[in-house]
User: What shape does this take?
Amino acid sequence: MSLGSTAVAPPRPGVSPRRPGLAATSPFLRAAAGDRPDSVPVWFMRQAGRVLPEYRALRATTAMLDSCRNADMVTEITLQPVRRFRPDAAIFFSDIVLPLAAVGVDVDIVAGVGPVVAHPVRAPSDLDVLRPLEPGDVPYVSEAVASLVRELGQTPLIGFAGAPFTLASYLIEGGPSRSHTRTKALMYAEPALWHDLLGRLADITAAFLRVQVDAGADAIQLFDSWAGALSEDDYLRYVAPHSTRVLAAFADDGIPRIHFGVNTGELLGAMGAAGADVVGVDWRVPLDEAARRVGPGRAVQGNLDPAAVFAPSDVLAAKVRDVCRRGAAAPGHIFNFGHGVLPESDPGVLAHIVDLVHQF
Ligand code: CP3
Assistant: This one.
């Protein structure tokens, strides 16, 4: 595995030291490196926020992006699911559009809708706003990561960002989209503009991840949530070079790079080859088959259907067992849902799933 020989990166100036020994003891980091810890590690995408009453209470009077800009709130919201569920990793509380807002894009998160962009990208001049992100644009991110690393003890922290394609989709469509029609139209009709846009987004994404890693994040996840809208051919031509550049920027940091998208059954090999140590898999492809598609030398993460939390407990337990059994076909397996926790999920059932996975 690529991580094996570089488990400890040389310290960078001004960079928080990683917690000593964590790579050898954390089940999450060991599985990401292609090892088999005593119990299967588990965390949930979108575990921070969404389902917890204590999150809703804290957020009640603060807009989503404002809460991401408040280091104390970010720290508290990131820790809430760790206290409740005892997962094997924490995910930093933020959003994929935060770095876009930080460089000056007029984007907001509308409750119940998602990101909404005031001036969608239609012409070359619309790219001018996408300047490089500087660490000083997101001081609250470094501050929150540093305080989390102190608070989390032996639980690793996952930093994250949106991948260039998924960010481009929000910028071009102006909001959430089912078909990504305008995005694809621009991609096919104006390849030069397209690659300029994705190149700028790759720079912003890599810079946003760099802030998190330099402040002490123990792993990164690149969310290309909507990449599954593309054929493999189009993904390789229009998207993979940019995501590859983002992931390559962390090749020497000695931390696992997780690459995830929804509906990406046909892209699993390409998403691994883009430079991932771990490939996230949605619930549509069983993990043993996913491991075959990803190929040797990479771990997999996933892939319980998030709706399984509504199943009777014996059905749920059988599904959890099946995911663990099939995950054993990969060099390493991190248990997760196949997409984010559904907002209606019962927190008690999520805690129960953590216990089931650990017992298995
Ligand atoms: O795991 C975590 O909960 C950490 C925080 C996190 C958020 N967004 C907070 C958030 C993470 C990892 C994300 C990633 C994200 N954001 C993705 C990739 C993951 C995925 O689900 O595919 C995407 C596509 C977005 C964009 C986005 N932000 C959408 C589509 C939405 C609306 C849907 C929703 O989740 O409610 C948001 C808003 C958002 N991001 C909320 C939270 C807690 C809800 C804000 C609110 O309470 O109104």
